[in-house]
Amino acid sequence: MIDGTFSASVPHFNQVFSLHCIKYGYNFPCVIGLLPGRTASIYKQVFEVLDAAAQRLNCKFNPNKIMSDFEQALIKTIASYFPNAKHSGCFFHYTQCLNRRIQTLGLSRFYNNDEEIRSLCRHLMALPLMPLEDVQRAFETLSEEAPVELQPFFEYFEDWWMKKVPFRLWNVSNLKVKTNNNVESWHSRFNKRIEKNHPNFWSFVNTLKQEEVHFRQQLIHGNS
């Protein structure tokens, strides 16, 4: 699982990038890095550094399953660097994208007060839970039912989610883990331990050390 958080980044950096895995039923942050931006070239450099580190340890940095948000630079880099990995977008981030678009289009009033409009929007939000082969037909059915107020929203959905983002990336119907909410929970916990936005470098490092001790103990207990 891959994600980023921004409020905990130190000055002169853009984000705290983290890579997590699930072990013994727990979420473990395996890689935490400070990145200066969110471009494909930066993500490629991160993967190259991790690949080289894995080789020094006689390991392979070649995950077969990856979950992330829908950041285009990251999606592009994952597809290029891990062409054989099963890459899935987080269902929670998908619904967040749709909720933000509802607000951007000024549809919040309709969504909050009109049950028909709210139901249609929620059906769109639930499309990733349907079998992949049924998504196209379900979208067409919903489009036929959409009132004029929702036309801009459905046009956005068709242009982006139906044409530009592959179905396989946002369809989670066959996944046991459909979100990276456990990563978001770690971000929340980490940000609270930092105590303030954009801390100084040494405060950030000290918090990382505390996190390492915490998760090392958790890993030992989980393996006992």
UniProtKB/TrEMBL annotation:
InterPro entries reported in the protein's UniProt record: MULE_transposase_dom
Residue stretches making up the MULE transposase domain: 2-95
Name of the protein this chain belongs to: MULE transposase domain-containing protein
Any Pfam family matching the protein: MULE
